[in-house]
Records
---
Amino acid sequence: MQRVIERILNLLAFLLTASRPVTADEIRHTVAGYEQEGDEAFRRTFERDKDLLRRLGIPLHLAFTDR
């Protein structure tokens, strides 16, 4: 549980200091705690973390881009 709390705090700090929208890839490679080896593991963890932030009342604004 401590690792989850630390990762969530790292994510929140990163998002609050970002001066622009950031991609999931940027988060994966910048925020401590997202070092999972596979893409699917990162996606599952990141989705759970976003859900947790929402349940805590922290608004997240998502934007989808064409690649």
Note: The first helix runs from residue 2 to 17.
---
Amino acid sequence: MNHFIEFFDNALSDEQCDICIDAVNQDSRSRVGVVNTEQGQIVDKKRKDDTELTLELQNQEPIHDIICPILIQLGREYMKRQPALNQIASWTFTPYYNIQKYNPGQGFHMLHTENTDKTTANRILAWMFYLNTVTDGGGTYFDNYDLTMNAIKGRCVIWPAYWTHFHKGIVSKTETKYIATGWISYIDKT
């Protein structure tokens, strides 16, 4: 069965991952993570407990030079593996993404999807880079497929953003987990 979850090992080098980790640890813009709700973005540590740095593509950020070229390459590879994407409306990378840090015991605790309401309805795919290897949990669990994706440094995972792909983080009680994550969305032509 095709679950449309694709992964690409060694997508980022160890050095590239370390640069991203340093950013979330050292950038003064890092903040407590939020979740999208019908009331807007809120802090809800029962759902998601992390520190995150949101980077916008319109701003000059050194990390864009790491993330963006690789995402373009992997987006093309994903389309080769999932050619039905060529039959939908034009899409591109969402103009912002997050670098997230989950200390031991923290995580995205609840099952969720990336396309949840009218503010996220244009998302068609989600992407994530694991920035470090976590051996005590730390992966991502896709419940509809009973599939666990292990957190391996440099691995990129791309999957559909819809209700068919509910997922949650697997919390590590002993290790810190770092990821970079964002979305691929329909182009807004309004």
Note: The helical segments are 14-26, 64-81.
